[in-house]
Amino acid sequence: MKPVIALVGRPNVGKSTIFNRLTRSRDALVADYAGLTRDRIYGTVREENLDFILIDTGGLTDQTDNMSDLMRKQAKLAIDEADLVLFIVDGRAGLMPSDTDVAQQLRSDGKPVRLVINKTEGEQREMVAADFYSLGLGEPQVISATQGRGFTELLEEIKVCL
Ligand code: GDP
Ligand code: MG
């Protein structure tokens, strides 16, 4: 069985952009507004010595409307299926309260989690990372999904985790 990796995080942090880059597809819709991805989307990533299933999810919020509930359920299903969770945060927005909530939830789920900071083009690694250490998820991967920054390192890290 191929390992399964789930992309989890708030809406609009760039999960679908990361999904498309890693799967070399345009299967996941990317948009400038929150909440476009509602279901789970599956893709395959094949790199040297690396072959896994990637799941894109709609995103987790602390809101309590029907759409948020639906997306939360989908994310939960993806996390249950996953061997590894990539928790995506937005380096430009900085640490948000709902990031802390999601981190808490992921820790209680007990799945292996790697923290990934997206939208970091033009930023110094240390500066972006500093904001997120308080999540207690260890050393983050610092990437830019639109520029492709940090993807070699991210794939290396995934290899180590699987
Ligand atoms: P999702 O809701 O988490 O799936 O986020 P999307 O992938 O739909 O992206 C939300 C918005 O952020 C889109 O306008 C993307 O083009 C933009 N975005 C994604 N990755 C990056 C990045 O690395 N840098 C910047 N500046 N914008 C990004
Ligand atoms: Mg999306």
From TrEMBL:
Domain of life (superkingdom): Bacteria
Domain named EngA-type G: residues: 3-162
Transmembrane segments: none
Residues annotated as binding GTP 1: 9-16, 56-60, 118-121
Physiological role: GTPase that plays an essential role in the late steps of ribosome biogenesis.
UniProt record similarity statement: Belongs to the TRAFAC class TrmE-Era-EngA-EngB-Septin-like GTPase superfamily. EngA (Der) GTPase family.
Complexes and interactors: Associates with the 50S ribosomal subunit.
Protein known as: GTPase Der
Source organism: Methylophaga thiooxydans DMS010
Parent-record interval covered: 1 to 162 of 468
